[in-house]
Protein 1
Amino acid sequence: SNITANGQIFLTGINIGLNLDCDGAQLESPNGFAIICDEATIAGSVYLCNGFKSDGEVRFKDAKIGADLECDNGQFTETNAGHFAMNLLEAEIRGSVVLWTNFFAAGNLDFKGANVGHYFFLNGIKPSDNMILDLRSAKIGCLFDDGKSWPKAGNLFLDNFTYNEFYNVAPTDSKSRIEWLHRQPTNQFLPQPYEQLALVFRKMGHQDDAAEVMIAKNQD
């Protein structure tokens, strides 16, 4: 923790028996990679929080994290085309992903194809105008979010995103969740996010909300 680095940190393929603790680290690699942990195996948690700051891509492609990815009070910046603020492409996180409490991102948060065993927290943050959240083909257990933390319209990608439930204090009404779906880009109609939402509402016993979602699907 409390690392200061000017340039790229390569941890590709590393095997860590406990935690990867980068609390308070200051990583600067503008237009490049701040840290690369592709195909890493980390038995415990990854801590990118408590004042963590990166200028450059934080990448955990195909990584396996045995517990949580904690990013509360972390700042992630990468707005150059072709790079991501966070790249978790097809990563496996057996615990939870924690993006809350002063979490800040400028750039693309890429969770395409990621598998999150427990919670995905997106709660209590103020998203930047260029924060993009890409959850296409990701799978998670429980979504714990709030409307104020959602990316702006056009910056949310949900096609083939699957989840089992919403946490009980997250928005669980059809009006809010249809507005959530409408944060997706409008250049292409994608039916799966509506069908997934209706499925979860039915599992929760919210039959009227499920019906409203399917009506919105047909209208859209």
Note: The helical segments are 174-181, 192-203, 207-219.
Protein 2
Amino acid sequence: MGTLIGHVAPGAGFILIGLWHLLNTIKAYARQGARGFESRPWFPAAPPGHPGRRAELYLIILGSLLSIASELFIFPHQHHPFVSHTDLSIPAQHLNNFEHSTISLFLLIYASVAALEDGGALNLADGFVHSLGSLAFAVELLLFHLHSADHMGLEGHYHWLLQLIVAACLVFTLVEIHVPRSFLASLGRATSLIFQGIWFIQMG
């Protein structure tokens, strides 16, 4: 993820999802008002039964799969994440690839479960998908805080700013779980996603 495309691609994805959430949150609040508004972990792009309904979730799934493939098999030296095919230990220079892939894995789990629930394959408790989203943000925050890359000096300050943005995403999502009618929490999460995307693109 240290490359230009490795920052710009996920950054554009975060901005796109964030703008989509911001637009739909404001639309939902304008239609339903303060009493009828309820936060959503994702927003359908079409009515039930339409193939494009879960476009947001499919975008996250595709982006996560591409990210994992790029981090572990396409861009690492010799295109292999381990020392060799027989020795499955992780070389120190590939540790950050596994950290980035873990973040993508939790986003993949979140979007896949949300898609399965919407398709009727799962019957989950209210707030469960929101909880998976908060777990993905918590894993992202933890891994960027304990990042194996040597972020010293000014670069360290930039990554500290990223941790603040991810922490905001986590806090707003947790508030949405406990106060599902909070318009400000939904607005804050959408805005934080946009700022996270801007950070990635700026670093790229």
Note: Helices lie at 4-36, 55-74, 95-118, 128-145, 153-178, 183-203.
Protein 3
Amino acid sequence: MRIDILTTFTEMFPPVLGASILGRAAQKGILEFNLCDIRQYSENKHHNTDDYPFGGGAGMVMLAQPIYSCLDAVDPEHKARRILLSPRGRTLSPEVARELAKEEHLLFLCGHYEGIDERVSCAMDEELSIGDYVLTGGELAAMVAIDCIARFIPGVLGSSESAETESFSDGLLEYPQYTRPREFEGLTVPEPLLNGNHAHIVDWQMSESLYITLRRRPEMAQAYLKGRKFTRHEQKVVNAVLERIREEDEKAKRDSEPAEETT
């Protein structure tokens, strides 16, 4: 996959794109990164890429001309799927990442300052947000999006199962992970992970994922429970988790009640 990144801060990307999993994927030729400095395409004599907004207001707005010129130079035939990183875009999710991972060519436009001239949106295919918060620029958002999308591209991860067994992949948060030693500072690895029984391990993983999701993201857990048909055995696992939570909540309620006074 080719990934073009249009930004005024190209120096932010090499440490991220050249390291770890993304760096190895680039070395293998699975990913090709192309950093484009928007400032180089400014026709202003000072090569600035922003100006004051019409109508007043705080901050500066990125000019349309340098961005359009950069797009024409990098993707003249509009073969790339052009994405503007923006808080108002659709939210990045595993489903969105899988969809974008199927593309052969992606282009990310990183906004900065107070925003981008609205006329630039005519040249883009969509807007993408990484969450309901605002950053100083789209550079960090682009890095997050690229890292998330890359994990669904065949060959990027060491294991073909990795992207499908992590948090959110099946609607639940991921179960706890352990490695050697078996005991550390009095804390031991759960027995189901040590007995070599694959069926027990799968049950434990499902149980822990559901439990953690119910505790930390109940809305996600409820959607999972409503949207999936369970086998009889899986339903037993689900029921056991629900009973575990019920008992814990009842105990917590009893413990929080003031003790009765005696005379």
Note: The first helix runs from residue 14 to 17.
